[in-house]
Amino acid sequence: MYQYTFPIKMTEVAFGANQNIFNVFMPGEREPKPTDPSVKVVKDVLALSAWPEFQPITGIVTSPVMRADGSIHNWPGYDPETRTYYVGGLRLDIPEKPTKEDAAECAQYILNEVLCDFPFAEEASRANVLAALLSVLTTHLIGGNVPLGLIDKPQAGTGASLIAEIVAEITTGDAACMETCPDSDEELRKSINSILMRGPQMVVLDNLSDTLKA
After folding, report:
1. Distance CA 124, CA 145 (A)
2. How confident is the model at residue 21 (pLDDT cuts 50, 70, 90)?
3. Virtual CA dihedral for 158, 111, 125, 174, nearest 10 degrees?
């Protein structure tokens, strides 16, 4: 017996490679086990003109997602409102109705405890790191593209990469996807394709030394 946990519109190669979306009940087993679907099953699914029994999905996330009403998708599985599938193990301990004072206290903790030792040039730079953190948290509320964040530094060893790691750890519960930007357009395209196949929530292009072209 096959159980499709959730659908993704993709190519045969990508669909077949994502074994986490295909579970099989083995004889004598009560719980399904993830496995690679057969080529025939992949082709049959992709050949369907419509998937009325499959829920639409916009992404796989490894950290809780904020809904439009301010509530949190905080448990593993599919959320129809955000159309995301949460596969992480991070749990948030948040009051049912947090106040502005609660939010201000959390922001001050991040600014005064987590980021206190970084040599920011001015308060605006420190505030922009908090803005970058909030941008990741509210991505699903924006309904469009999110601007790139730029962390520059006067010299090596001042902690720019560490700041990116901190933002990733707080917002996704996982390490940042750190990538060195290739020198050529061809290698950059290959790198982007590789990143998209892995599907990280946050990507950091580390140690940029030239103009980043579209």
Report:
1. 23
2. low
3. 60
